[in-house]
């Protein structure tokens, strides 16, 4: 199935680099290039049948910048489910935090090398196009020691396998399994503000065992972290469902990414370590205090 990607950036050279990197690794994609936020919104409204699977957008653009465009996008009910990834030259943590507060799914700092653009393409392909590629990293996962990953999965065999494969390449990583929506909520409620801020990634099944439980967990997590006044960790939905309604509902509740479970988990869940790598080494996220989970 052909997937559309809207690439919104006023810098032609950057558009070329991103396009070439994506087209070198992703199959069946069509990239539509736009140069500012106003053009994006007009194109979305005038071409409803050409809704994209993903929007890649710069922050600093003329006429309407990325922040203004994202705000307008998320205020339109019929468009807010479209995932948006900021790709910006700025590493300013205030801009990073602002992007996520407005509803961006990810924030990536533009690289200076071809290899950097390849890493971006790998991250986008894995997290948003449901296509796993061999890892671009070499050796064990960097930046994993002391990290905390919460896996919310009601299938005990899947949960055990996921934990084994994640820790195989990241032995210093702490995997915390929750087997139901109720146990996950109870776990997060037991954490104080510091411990909550120490969660680095949340992987959640959508059907726990029903769709409603998964969506309720997504909504509750956002509200809970907001009430505590701390940035939430990236939330990746990992589901056996590839239905558009499930994907759109998850993105409306601000899941950062949605990945369809592989048909053969035993042979394919190995991408999970790369998923951690993507969020800790390629994406930028608001700074949080370092702490362990008791």
From TrEMBL:
- The superkingdom of the source organism is Bacteria
* Entries under CDD domains matching the protein: REC_Rcp-like
Positions bearing 4-aspartylphosphate: 58, 205
Task: Kindly state which keywords UniProt assigns to this record, in alphabetical order.
Answer: Phosphoprotein
Which InterPro entries is this protein grouped with?
A: CheY-like_superfamily, Sig_transdc_resp-reg_receiver, TCS_response_regulator
Question: Among its keywords, does the record have Protein biosynthesis?
Answer: no
Q: Kindly list the biological process annotations in GO that this record carries.
A: phosphorelay signal transduction system
- Name of this chain's protein: Response regulator
Classification from the root reads:
Bacteria, Pseudomonadati, Bacteroidota, Cytophagia, Cytophagales
